[in-house]
Fold:
Amino acid sequence: MTLDLAPGIVRILRPNGTTSGTGFVVSDSGLIATCSHVIQSQDSQIRGESRPERITVVFNATGERRQAIVQPDWWRDAVKEDVAILQLEGTLPPGTQSLPLGSSVGTSSHGFKTYGFPDARSEEGLWGYGTIGDLLPVEPGRALLQLTGTTEVSPGFSGAPLLDTLKRRVVGMVTAITAPDQYGRLVETAFITTAETLRAICPVLRLSDICPYLGLSFFTELDAEFFFGRQQVVERLLESLKREPRFLAVLGPSGCGKSSLIRAKLIPELRRGAVPGSDRWGIIIARTADQPLEQLLVQGLQAQSTDLLEAVKKWQGANPDKTRLVLILDQFEETLVACPDQLCQSFIHQLSSLLDSPLPVTLIIVMRDEFYSRFVKQASSLLTWLEMGLVNIPSTIDKDELMVIVREPARVVGLEFETGLAEDCVNDVLKIAPGEQDRIGQSTALPLLEFALTQLWERRSEDVLTHEAYKFVGGVTGCLAQWADQAYSSLDKEQRPLVRCVLMSLVHLGDESQGIPDSKRQRPLTDLCSKMKDRETVRRVVDKLA
Structure:
């Protein structure tokens, strides 16, 4: 997903109302970055003339004119860093937003885009493109980042944000262009002030880079660009829906990535029309737990009703552009074990009635395979549907697919692995969770792998993932235990006794004699506090463990 620069762009005006250059919003509080020579010419600065205290800016997204105050503490003359930070008077207009800054380290050879106001389009603006080069020292202790192929970038781009299209972060601000030499060369060379320099001048600014790994969280539709592998499984899911579009049961072992697969892979495929007509389907996904209908209503079923069939009818009446409604019940085992028996049976009966109705619906149930016998016992009315639309997620994964899962998310955001490190990560997965055949591992180790990669990213060195960092975090085999030990050690003495209570409260204990495994349990934070005075302490414990 590309970052849209337009909502953060402003046009800087001279006192006579003409365009002087570009600026961009760098904080939700209304800070705007630009070049100091855009506010006051370099010649005027050298002559020692007073700089303006207020200037007029025009927001590119809305056309609104507003006043901004020049911040003297964050001003640097044009012969130095050439930076001006402005404070907008009032709040940001609706439809505008701050642009996220990211590190310029490791951006060499990345493509960029920018937006400025050259003379040819001094009010409408123009996009600029090119390639980021390397740092060029301009004086002791200061360097600018060189750009190449900057055909469009001209004086009206001064103060414009430079978006690294790989990192999807603004890594600097357009500062200068070169004049052509006697041979007509250097016309496509420009320079930017790095985001690190902007932060050094204005310490309230923050740099944030995108992490392509999600730790122990499942992937969502918004994370689809970072979800790789499992393509054969997705094809099986799509084929099942093509054969029987009303029902699909997705079963697999705990930790194999069922939720991520559905949210980050299947749903985007359906929105793209991978099943004929599915680009016009409405999709509601919910973790139904012990309040199944209420959770569906919260996630968009809209109609306040105690009857699922009636609620679906009302939803379809309110969404005539959608030809079918897809209801996805994620982690459905929680409903089987946590929902009161009478409520659970009523909900299952309503699901069965919905499937037997003429309404255009698809029901997708996602569940741990250990609960199959429980499902058969409690949801016998759905067994016929189960036979028509069951896909089991494999408990194994091969080495090549593991390598894709490790390498490809890093490639998307311009990260690199030190030689052999990606192979070490994969080999460690095969060691701790080996399959029955060579080059095959257990897919249940994927959460550990993702967590290790996230920890590795947090300790990256200039956008390179290193062997040293991998060893430091404990590798795939030890990173989670090491993190848990550190989290526990960081708690105060009064907080530590609460850890066991909190963790136990988030588990629904099974019954081995009945063949019911343990399962996760959603709990409101207030349920974890027996006394009001404990609430803040429990909240701090949960924050540390989250």
In short: The radius of gyration is 28 Å. Residues 396-478 form one domain.
